[in-house]
Task: structure prediction
Amino acid sequence: MYSTIGALGRRLRLGVIGGGAKSFIGPVHRAAARMDDNYEVVASVLSSDPERAKTEGVAIGIAPDRAYGSAEEMFATEKAREDGMDVVAIMSPNDSHYRYSVGAIEAGYDVICDKPLATSLDDGLDLVKRVKAAGIVFCQTFNYTGYPLVRQAMAMVRDGDIGAVRMVEAEYVQGYNYALRPDEKDGAGKNWHFVPEKTGQSLVLGDIGSHAHHLVRYVTGMNLARLVADVTTTVPGRVSPSHDHAGMLFRLDNDAPGVMWVTQAGAGAVHGLYIRVFGEKGGLEWVQETPNQLFHSRPESPALTYERGGPGLKPEARRAERIAIGHPEGYQEAFAVLYADAAEAIVARKLGKAPNRLALDFPGVVDGAHTLKFIASAVESAETGRWVDCRLGM
Amino acid sequence: MYSTIGALGRRLRLGVIGGGAKSFIGPVHRAAARMDDNYEVVASVLSSDPERAKTEGVAIGIAPDRAYGSAEEMFATEKAREDGMDVVAIMSPNDSHYRYSVGAIEAGYDVICDKPLATSLDDGLDLVKRVKAAGIVFCQTFNYTGYPLVRQAMAMVRDGDIGAVRMVEAEYVQGYNYALRPDEKDGAGKNWHFVPEKTGQSLVLGDIGSHAHHLVRYVTGMNLARLVADVTTTVPGRVSPSHDHAGMLFRLDNDAPGVMWVTQAGAGAVHGLYIRVFGEKGGLEWVQETPNQLFHSRPESPALTYERGGPGLKPEARRAERIAIGHPEGYQEAFAVLYADAAEAIVARKLGKAPNRLALDFPGVVDGAHTLKFIASAVESAETGRWVDCRLGM
Amino acid sequence: MYSTIGALGRRLRLGVIGGGAKSFIGPVHRAAARMDDNYEVVASVLSSDPERAKTEGVAIGIAPDRAYGSAEEMFATEKAREDGMDVVAIMSPNDSHYRYSVGAIEAGYDVICDKPLATSLDDGLDLVKRVKAAGIVFCQTFNYTGYPLVRQAMAMVRDGDIGAVRMVEAEYVQGYNYALRPDEKDGAGKNWHFVPEKTGQSLVLGDIGSHAHHLVRYVTGMNLARLVADVTTTVPGRVSPSHDHAGMLFRLDNDAPGVMWVTQAGAGAVHGLYIRVFGEKGGLEWVQETPNQLFHSRPESPALTYERGGPGLKPEARRAERIAIGHPEGYQEAFAVLYADAAEAIVARKLGKAPNRLALDFPGVVDGAHTLKFIASAVESAETGRWVDCRLGM
Amino acid sequence: MYSTIGALGRRLRLGVIGGGAKSFIGPVHRAAARMDDNYEVVASVLSSDPERAKTEGVAIGIAPDRAYGSAEEMFATEKAREDGMDVVAIMSPNDSHYRYSVGAIEAGYDVICDKPLATSLDDGLDLVKRVKAAGIVFCQTFNYTGYPLVRQAMAMVRDGDIGAVRMVEAEYVQGYNYALRPDEKDGAGKNWHFVPEKTGQSLVLGDIGSHAHHLVRYVTGMNLARLVADVTTTVPGRVSPSHDHAGMLFRLDNDAPGVMWVTQAGAGAVHGLYIRVFGEKGGLEWVQETPNQLFHSRPESPALTYERGGPGLKPEARRAERIAIGHPEGYQEAFAVLYADAAEAIVARKLGKAPNRLALDFPGVVDGAHTLKFIASAVESAETGRWVDCRLGM
Result:
């Protein structure tokens, strides 16, 4: 795995926005940053409430004077420090991603931002422009593409190992979060996922459909051209946009058909992120719940199982692994791969060097924009009952 | 398993139409008939060519005078024999199912017929009327519903073990038959599956989509109300109706959403018949390639795995199994369950008794008609790009 | 699959000894005989009680005059018939196998006999001599070697596909039969498996250890040279020889080490017959509960999964399969493979021809004798705590 | 997961011995220390060569003045610092564990030490005494017992969920390390695993048999009473003690029989640590390659699958997990659980408080001694061919 200590002589200094006491994703981001010893978390804004932000920052080991009460304060104060932060990681609720990203970009920071990019396509496209203009590194944490075997699948499709893509299917079938009740309380108020203005156009599509969509694009190397969708609620008492189920038919750029199924209301389902792609010469199958294997079907020969750390892997997969075959790597490790990739790109930018090609496999701002277009298109299709063009033109 | 020897004092006498030397399904039907010793195959029409029909009949052990050259000859001659046949099993190409069924019904025979019921919905509806009028037993061999664990799933949904159905997904993803070439030669001519007038409106939907569709209806206990479909060819050089891929979104009677994916062009895929259904209290998952297990997810408790022959099975599953737990039963055994069910219904009719309720779980003529409506609706949707009502009203 | 109708113009006529109303294995043998339409069951002795033997024979469809009261009566009467039986199949309790086999051989019949060959090694060795002297076909139903993928494994090892064998492990871990109670009642009396004089030297070794042992020999192509064993009872209240657990270390002919674990008291275990063998170039793994796959590990390349009906199979595997890939074959089909093999050997003998080499892969009388030596050696080792030589010299 | 920042107001300061540039386990230990933010690595001795030790220390981010050239230097210098280290972690070659542990204990440090405890039983017993006398925390990294589902299994057995233990089987079947060649070169010289004085009495038993043995003791809550073993080399050219295969039969304290199979020469095997234990009411099965599930067989009910993060888990399992169900945790996370446990015990000692009972589930010095006794006994049995008593009396 990449080491900034080797390249830069030190760890990158990270400031985090969001991810406080009750957050699921906050500890994941911070552990990902620590995993390969490329970052130290030096500054934080852990809540929109300034008082809580400071208390919670100290509670995770931030020095009291760098546990800030607002992003603006963090940007300004860190800018002035000799040992100020290098990178901003954003893991606050969905509706704040755009605002904090804009602030970080304006302050000149490289950005690691949780998905979605924004809650509207317009904001997303605006961010694309800003990132390009600023020339910063922007990593959007579609974290499942950090798994070594997903990278293997991507490289195999790209290299023609299964021939031209003929069809694809993706699923994300969960059942623990929000599976059974009409909504979820979070302390005094509603869980923000069920507050329309915070979650965006569609809960299930923003939360997990976004991952399935990105996985399809990442592995096939193609965009979706058009789709027809059934986006709905299945738990009685829920209303749009708190969707919990979406079915989708789509066509890729090359007209190959695809099917997608995502839900967070599959009672008792564990996780269920899954992709299967068939080409003219074979197929690939990957399941997030057993992420260390990739299954390769072949009409003329027995099927192959690629094993993380084992023989037959491409450099893209090798680069994303840390330990020996058979010692399972999981979700946290995959997440950390994006942090390591971003670190390499950031250090290259700092040193004015071209980054390693392989370090550029992480998802960025354009990927985030594609997902927003996808969500908007699916919702439109669900409302009209028609096929909808979902090309972004990027 | 049911025994006609116990109930009737003898085996049922079976005449078979189709299933000659090059047939895949012919030996399957005959072995299914022999499996539980409820039938002896006494008469045959194994080819539309009278000469070949006789030769091939003798080759499978039929007495020379009962290896007939045509169905008409078989019906007439057997009718006149003291020890004439009781039942007709039809396994000829798709476009002849209707014609032979009509002939058999008119001659008063009980019928076991391979799917599809017919190649047009009108013919199918006509058969429904004829079967009802004649009062005969008609078994349509949607054979996958003969698996004990499929019956377990059906009975669990019916009994409310997973609560009201909220969503369902079905797949049938194959890759060996017709996976890679534009068509398949069969000796001198084309494989009949690629001859439009023989295969019906859609190759992939008739061949395997029909099974996935029936499985959804059988397990959920509901019909499909409407659907939108993408039915297409993915192998270059193929044209409609030699479809090899279909994606589908649908709604069940209770408005629960569903997703379906069927293909015969998934390079290297093995078989891939699969169903997953979620209700308000849990989910069920069954894979035809490991048919002796049924997986039951539960949000509040660890998941259960039901094992054929093991504890916790309903009478519907128990009835459909022959040997002890852990001794795998397969495709041939499931097929034979339908023959055993039909035998019990036929004997009950002969004896003027009400059949065992559990013996009526086999698919019949109305199920065949539903499938024809489904195929017609899917093809219409694929052409118009719209959602289509697919209710049969039965 | 082999057809006697093609080769001989008719089915072989089979007489069965044992397998009456309460038998597990009786219906399995008869369905195996019917599976490929190579046999018709024409005569029976279904019980040691002559009255019951007749009643139960008629109940399974045997003509009343051929439902015999004793084996002696069957041998004598059938001998005198023009259409008398060709083959005897023995599936009575263990302690009668030797006696009935001797009778059948003396009467000149080919024999299909359930395992074990006998309850003492001396009797077994005597049978080896008698079979060789008589020149008859003797098939011992170690039925698991009828699975196509087991034959694939055997052929791969023999052909050097994994290099010289370096180690092997086998398991048979069951938990439903006799798992929890000290013994099992069977109607009025004890289940015969718990009656020492009927079951032989060791219940668990005779019942299932025998299968594991044969599987090791069949797949590796080698005999066991020496072993140390721990053969014991784990359910309180049981006493020797009603053993329910055996652990074993052994060396093959080439000094490669092996490990074996067999039990019928693994609470809740399903079936658990399993073999894993490693050679210098790779390994093979097969599990009876998913018998249609064979896993092939390779240090330098991704692992392969062979699929019944799929690419890469040897003629030995191809010969033992009936239907297309992905349509699971199970226990009953594997059992029937031995019947088909035996049929081919028997017909060849009747016609005075050399049988197809591939038809000789079924286990015979010498295999039965090896197993008896194995059981005797294991029991001796368990009593002495020492390594014991277990070579038979055949 | 436990946080020292919350309890102590700061991270523990860790000094590491061993784990330099070519080490597999060094990065694993350090990442485990960072995972939950309970430790900062402040000091190091990364090589027995002082020059390399300093260079390599700086290369992993240690301050130049704390990248020591020897353990003695580290102990002495750190002792004198205000902000000196709290804990020593030892991950150097096997033959140095004893020496460094003694040094650290004498200097008053808590110790986290890789297995084995020592290369002789005498040294191991001496360490037991020293640890007890010093009252320090000593964590032996039998890291597989950090997996949440292993802790679930341990707690279930202890709570009687499967009833009294009746039998157990354990495997560790690897094939990548040292699978095929007689030995392994490591740069200029031999890989230290193949140098007898460094590896101890038996390569395969020390390297991986130790883990299998500890897993059996941890899950069953019992010690091994006696055993018979076949410990050998299977790769031509290897000699004792470079064993690569061991089979074992044993009895637990309660006389329940066990079987063990460990090898590093299973060509192409992936990892293969596995345990299966049966009690009077059910069985448990766990496979390290899919560590997030635990399978629970039950004779009277369908089997259960426990899922990390899912319903039905005991506090011992809950305590050892970090993220939501379905997001796989792996080897690195399990390793880090021991570090978190040790941190909690160390902080409790520093604060003079009783530690949380659940924090004491990590393996300690006595566990290390049991393993040394086990290895010595197995080697003795292999040499004599006899059963050997292997009780330690602790």
Q: What stands out?
A: Residues 231 and 250 of chain B are 14 Å apart (CA to CA). Chain B has two domains: 4-144, 145-323+368-389. The domain at 4-144 of chain B is CATH 3.40.50.720 (Rossmann fold).
